[in-house]
Specification:
- The protein is elongated.
- Strand 12 and strand 13 (about 220) form a beta hairpin.
- The protein is built from 8 helices and 15 strands.
- The chain has about 270 residues and is of the alpha+beta class.
- The strands form 4 sheets. The chain has a 6-stranded antiparallel β-sheet, covered by helices on one side.
- The longest helix has 20 residues, at about 105-125.
């Protein structure tokens, strides 16, 4: 579900020059990744950003599912600058030359965005769950979200989906994710989130969640269980993302009491033996 283009240059790309040019775009930001690729986005606006990977004889530019107009317009500018800096040509996924500018025209962008949203809604209707990586955080779509959107279509569906992605990435408190423990084999790791009432945090999707208590009792639940017993002060933003600030002691104790009734720690121990 990605759209991939290649730029074959006559001269190597100078990324320092490219990034200086990109800085002139209002709101543009970029980061270098450990795998050698670069990531570009428009702060407070992009939903997916743009992936740029230097290969041995070409530059790959990738746009992913649920990219928005800001991402496609940024891609147009990146391609224009890279062509200029390398005196290169652009190839599509069939390795055919792409003529004309811009790379993504308004009619294509509008059609692609609507198609992406229709695909997401169709998959959710089949009971699938979808997770995408936004510019700052993952965004989760599932049954809960589908039930809110099942009657939406066209521009209303598009607006709902992109508003949610932007909300998760830009418009919730910038709390830390807190302590997450990896257990099991490296080939099939499991992740356990520890939630305490001492820190504000963002809750993501994990294999298990443990709630801290003074008795050092092991209280383990899942995201789905937690979503059924949320304190009123916590905000469920998408299928699994929660804004979880510190709450009153009596509300925390109420949450613990509910979690104890649904504790799956013994089941977890049996499955790990």
């Amino acid at each position: 579900m990605s759209i991939i283009h290649k730029i074959i240059g006559n001269t190597p790309l100078d990324f320092e020059k490219l990034n200086l040019l990109i800085k002139n775009i209002n709101g543009a930001a970029f980061s270098y990744r450990d795998d050698g690729s670069y990531y570009y986005w428009i702060e407070n606006h992009s939903t997916r950003g743009v992936d740029l990977t230097p290969e041995s004889d070409y530059i790959e530019i990738r746009n992913t599912l649920l990219s928005n107009i800001h991402d496609y317009e940024l891609t147009n500018k990146l391609v224009s600058q890279i062509k200029f800096l390398t005196n290169g040509i652009v190839l599509n996924e069939d390795d055919e030359p792409v003529e004309g500018y811009p790379l993504f025209k308004p009619q294509f962008i509008e059609k692609q965005i609507q198609q992406d949203c229709n695909i997401v809604q169709a998959l959710l209707g089949l009971g699938e769950e979808i997770t995408i990586y936004g510019t700052k955080r993952k965004v989760h779509f599932g049954k809960h979200i589908f039930n809110k959107w099942k009657d939406l279509s066209g521009e209303n569906l598009t607006k709902a989906i992109f508003d949610l992605i932007e909300k998760v990435n830009y418009y919730i408190p910038d709390y830390d994710y807190g302590q997450v423990i990896q257990v099991g084999d490296d080939d099939e790791p499991k992740f356990i989130k520890l939630i305490t009432n001492a820190f504000d945090c963002i809750v993501d999707k994990y294999d298990y969640i443990m709630l801290h208590n003074e008795e050092d009792e092991a209280v383990m639940i899942t995201n789905d269980i937690l979503n059924t017993i949320l304190p009123e002060e916590w905000q469920r933003v998408d299928e699994y993302t929660l804004v979880a600030p510190i709450i009153k002691t009596e509300h925390w104790e109420k949450l613990l009491a509910s979690a104890r009734q649904l504790n799956i720690f013994e089941e977890y121990l049996k499955n790990t033996k």
